[in-house]
Amino acid sequence: MMRRLLYVFLFLTAAAPGYAVSGDHPLINNIPNRTTISLNGSWHFIVDPYETGLHSRFYQNAKAKDKNDLVEYDFDKSDTLNVPGDWNTQKKELLFYEGPVWYERAFSYRKREHTRVFINFGAANYFSRVYLNGEALGEHEGGFTPFNFEVTDKIHDGENFVVVEVNNARRRDAVPALNTDWWNYGGLTRDVALVEEPDTFIYDYVVQLAKGSGQEISGWVQLTGAFSEQQVTLEIPEVGIRKTVLTSADGYAEFHFLAKLELWSPAHPKLYDVVLSSGADKVHDSIGFRTIETRGTRILLNGEPIFLRGISLHEEAPMRGGRAFSQQDAETLLGWAHELGCNFVRLTHYPHSENMIRLADRMGIMVWSEIPVYWDIDWENPSTLQNAKSQLRDMIARDHNRASVILWSLSNETPVKPERTTFLRQLAETARRLDSTRLLTSAMNHVDESGIDTRTLNDPLGEYLDVLGLNEYLGWYWGRPEDADRMQWKTAWDKPLIMSEFGGGAPYGRHGSADERWTEEYQASIYQHHIVMLKKIPSLAGLSPWVLMDFRSPRRQLPGVQDFYNRKGLISNQGQHKQAFYVLQKYYQELESGK
Ligand code: GCB
Question: How far is the CA of 545 from the centre of ligand 1 (A)?
Fold first, then answer.
């Protein structure tokens, strides 16, 4: 009940004028297993640096009516971009572009009785306005979360056109704000599809183990449509489970029952076919069941301590570059993480595509998922808070049935000041209300430096988290690699610690001595000395060094070395493995074999 009220509350507040709006309909969960019609492919586009498109009504997709008529744009004669995909890496002249781009695509559709139709966007960076057949559907803010609009009454039987203005201009009040260390890839960066549903359908549900219980399934379903009370059936055919519940008048029902299931873990990533049906709607999902908790400084998976052998990564496409989005991208990136010996990935610094999370579910890789509350943002602005809450809500809503996701991360390296802590405390409260089963974390970097060879993580944010993330960069931004041998790390709380970032930059193939910066040897030396240090941290529960693969960043220009890439990857953007990869791989092999 609480959850439903919260959804309604969040939805209403999100839709208030002047606030971040998240589509016109709450997210439809489990898009990959719904009936969809893809709108991926080639879309016409018009670049609009002076923001004339809105005034000139590009969304009408007009044609000159006669030889005298004045229409100063023409989508049909304009160039095309592939969707999904960022524009920066598809057109040379758009590499640095930040601003509005208008997309247009025609499609035909056959209307059917008793079928509701939605248009769903996997993600669009950053701010979007969507139009169907010249009519506004709504707006969405946030570059990495899905959104949808109902178009049942607006879609035509026959020819249709959709126009989307996507604007990736950075703003001081946005999330993230003006400054990041990644490329601001703009565009329709994930799948676009029509989704067909019956008049009444199950738009969201949670089917997970109750917190701390390996045997009790606890969850809820929410219908949308015109109904009074209605039956919903949940089945897990493989173990003969079939439960029926009756919804309240507004379509909500909870269920709690005991079940004997094989638990999901990296060693045994068991997924069950779960079937939910109600009236004309039936939806399948592949769900793993596991518990995740902390006890003192340990993280417990299914009640047993587990050490997170991880790596951080950006959603950057291997080889071809640009924003990653495909199944193949996910397979390459998680394949490398697997080769490294990981049982855990930190997906920075924003929610990655659903492909990635579903693959992690299948591969048995635990996931840290993060919203882009990064460095300094407009902490005292209520609409910025609302925007961060919307992104958090949608990250959780999309993936709340994924066993691989064990950690929701609220932020990365935010400055320690009261207004920041108040902001993040509110995000923590929101996350706990939306999902009480997963752990909360943040990557912090504020430490007490008063000891000579001792550092203490004491950011007051730690109080609101279950797991502490620490980005240090000993040997790169301060000190020398060998200083790690003597360094002792403490924290102000009796909670598990993840070294969420450390590392150093080296282009693949650049060699020299271990004390020469920008060489593979220097990078490897940072890892070697860190391993000595990490072994001595009693509360260490895992690590996710920086970073799996080199990635584009406008801040990293050093000619001949960086050339607009952050070179801290263990693997180059062309897939070449650097020496440090093998140093960490060896450590992970030792950990796995219990040496
Ligand atoms: C950090 C940030 C990460 C940067 C990295 C770096 O602390 O969290 O986004 O890319 O350092 O390379 O400096």
Answer: 10
